Amino acid sequence: MTTLNLESILRIVSVCTASLILIIGLFMLTGTMMPSAVPDRFRVLMGSLMIFYSGYRLWMLWLKRSKQQNNDDTEPT
Predict the structure, then answer these.
(1) pLDDT tens per residue across span 26-76
(2) How many CB atoms lie within 10 A of CB 28?
(3) pTM over 0.85
(4) How many whole angstroms separate alpha carbon 17 and alpha carbon 44?
C-alpha cells in the first residue's frame, strides 16, 4: 500500500480541477449551461478559453511529472 504525500494529493487535485474546467467548457460550448440570454459569441469564447486552459493545466502537469522522472533517472544512487 502506498502512502499519499502532499505532492500526490496536489497532483490529484490538479487533474480533477483541469477535468472539471474541461467539462464546464464543453457544456458552455454546447450551450447547456448558459441561459438563452447570453450571446453566442460570449458563450463560444468562454467555452473555448476554458477548454484551452484545462489543456494547458494538464500539459504543464504532464511536463512537470516527466521532468521529475528524468531527474530521478539521472541522479546517481
Answers:
(1) 999 998 878 888 899 999 999 999 999 999 999 999 898 888 877 777 766
(2) 22
(3) no
(4) 21
